[in-house]
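Posted in: Structural Biology > Protein-Ligand Complexes

Title: Requesting predicted complex, IF1 in pocket

I'd be grateful if someone could produce the 3D structure tokens for the following input. Sequence and ligand are given below.
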Amino acid sequence: MNHMAPSKPKTADFIERARFGASNYKPLDVVLTHGEGVHVWDVEGRRYLDCLSAYSSVNQGHCHPKILGAMIEQASRLTLTSRAFRNDQLALLYEELCTLTRAHKVLPMNSGAEAVETALKLARKWGYLVKAVPKDRAEIIVCENNFHGRTIAIVGFSSDGTSREGFGPYSIGFKTVPFGDEAALAAAIGAHTVGFLAEPIQGEAGVIIPPAGYLKKARELCSRHNVLFILDEIQTGLGRTGKLLAEEHYDVEADITVIGKALSGGFYPISAVLSNCEAMDVLHPGEHGSTFGGNPLACAVARMALKVLIEEGMIENAAIVGRYLKDCMQAIASPMVKQVRGVGLMIAVELHNDAGGARPVCEKLLARGLLAKETHDNIIRVAPPLILTQEQADWIATQFEAVL
Ligand code: IF1
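-- Reply #1 --
Done. Output follows.
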């Protein structure tokens, strides 16, 4: 007689064993084990369409075969050298990133928050060395409702209580202005202002699109007052909005641009600071670094992640299918929906305050095979991989229509 295979641990077992982990997240009760393209599968064998894409990291789709190939090939050859020596991948990544983005110089880091910290350090140092701001007086202007990561300095200038409270004392030298308000920015700029940091479209805040002309005006103000214009494109960059960088929608060019997330297609933590020469050249040997930053494995993965993003037309697809999906979502007639907004495949569905909250909607979507995550109490983000087809967009809209 055949033996029954011992039953594999299932969802409840995994959740139960998560008691050994820190409680800094409240994930939906789905345990994922496999991914391919826009889909992921849970330990019960159920398939889902992923509308979060690991917070816009998996723009190229889950387990893209070419990125996987590059990763395996590089991992079997050389993974880490430290920056004490050179490796044969880093310079190629520099060159390819600069050609793509028209940046002059690149500084590789690992996480998004680290890259933002790096940009802040660059701005301060540039302020002292180039703008001649008196010692320790440099000021950086940031936006209300920003999200730039979780380090002590970054949460210190967050306006989100949950991210910020309890982690003081906070770093000084930051000033907050409302996002989208050019007059407030103009008023905040002073003699010691070295940088203005913003997300082109605010992500965590709920896909907040700036008023027409705002970023162009901000760019002008920064140029006029000799202030570095720093854009955090960690979430908006690398095709998410239907352009390589979201700044292209607004016809501006930042002095410093920070990218991360999809730079590896979700395979590996890698981020980068892209800059013009004047700002980047203030850093000299020993003044900044990272053990893993610029390692050959990260670079090989990033090079292929960029290559497939471009060569497989993912950015154009995000623009076309993104517009189509937004139209479909906007056509949903539901009294629960306050607004559907978005650019490319960075879309948000905002519910009315009395609609019962976004979390129950996400749970119902989960039961229908669609993974989405709420942000704040009443906003659902829709950010699938950029390889989404029109048929899959139709399917997403159908699920939302059924639930809403
Ligand atoms: C978490 C949100 C997304 C970012 C921008 C820097 C970073 C992020 C514009 C830091 C990170 C993440 C991190 C994740 C939740 C998440 C997020 F919900 F908070 F808004 F993506 F939508 N700049 N965003 O969006 O990059 O250090 O994490 O690599 O729970 O912290 P990181």
